[in-house]
Fold GntR family transcriptional regulator.
Amino acid sequence: MRKYRVVADQLLDEIAQGKYKDEDRLPTEDKLMAEHNVSRNTLRSAIDVLVDKSILYRVQGSGIYIRKPVYPDTITINSIRGFKEEFKNKETHSEVIELEQLPADKEISQKLQCEIGTPVYFVHRMRYIENEPFSIEYSYFNKTIIPYLGREIANNSIYSYIENDLNLSIGFADKYISVEKLSKMDSSHLQLKEADPSLVIEETVYLTNGTLFNHSRVIHNYKHAKFFALAKNW
Amino acid sequence: MRKYRVVADQLLDEIAQGKYKDEDRLPTEDKLMAEHNVSRNTLRSAIDVLVDKSILYRVQGSGIYIRKPVYPDTITINSIRGFKEEFKNKETHSEVIELEQLPADKEISQKLQCEIGTPVYFVHRMRYIENEPFSIEYSYFNKTIIPYLGREIANNSIYSYIENDLNLSIGFADKYISVEKLSKMDSSHLQLKEADPSLVIEETVYLTNGTLFNHSRVIHNYKHAKFFALAKNW
DNA sequence: TTGGATTTGTGCGTATGTATA
DNA sequence: CTATACATACGCACAAATCCA
């Protein structure tokens, strides 16, 4: 693994274990460089990772400080794998309501930026946490990029299949967040009432090489949907 | 201004003017270095800025590409100043419902991480876009850090007052996003019905030196609240 | 209050690794 | 397989913000 990632992981471990909790502050860059045997740039790349993750913040002339931890049971919206990762200390499972292969119609082709008629997989899934309905997912995958998708995969994690089995590298995603009143069908799936609130995230997901491979619309149970985002003052 | 920021701004301008729209791709790093007379590190810092803003993405071995533009009329959740900035092509205004100075009670002191009794400003504002109610803001400012706040400021932009007049540097913010049913009072302010959906953002805002100075709870009209976030696969 | 020491931020140069074309 | 282009890593110098005597 890249050196700066190793250092980032080590620092993350140390922070998690409370090594710096008295000070809420890391040693100086010079000390960390010596400790981890890396150059200044490499160390700073490692710190960058943790700053992006909102674990640390830096103050010029002063030091590198540890942030207050994010509230538990919230999904970090700037991260791609929300569900299983964020709730790994809880029981989570998925239920595939529908999975089929079909040719892209006009709407789907626009969302997946592909030709009309391109074969795509459509997945309709429910997500549960501790057996409580958490979200409904309507998802399309471009079959040109994801050549196969089956129920056994969708019951587990599609993303870990894509990364570990297909050996593709997921890069980034656009997410649009809005609020809607639930349709009758969605409300029954979520065990809520029609016209109850829901938090809707539409996301477009790309490989690291910029290829668009997935578009999803995820409808969240308003009672459980709590998201976190870090904002910067550009 | 810092060199890498100048380069970032120049590139942003060029992109906005469609200079690269045929290719959707920037010249190589080597060419950009020569063009802007900067070192590789400086150029890469400039590109980093635009990648963070989801303007560009990089593909190792291939090039630097221009992203599809974000939908208009959405608020970038990873940016701190949402309202006036994102809707600067529209008429926006604020209406101060309440502005008072008071000592922090237990709840406020926890949210502002200060002692009970610390003087704080409380601001209750409505935000309008094209004269449509957009959001309700309940905001607390630590008076130790923000020594004065008046109605004439709150009618305008509190943040520009803090940065330009008080000369403080706003750094970063934590945002928690959730969905709630509207209370009777909030619904009337938003000209909606009681129990209608709303998107709620609780944010804690820090100066660049890590000082917590503001906590806000902002309740958005579900008909207009559209947010955007860029997610990375860490 | 000032000024020096400390600490992070910016910028330059160079070499090598790795993914893509 | 080779060339191209971005990614990582090293070292150095100076700027700017903060801290402290």
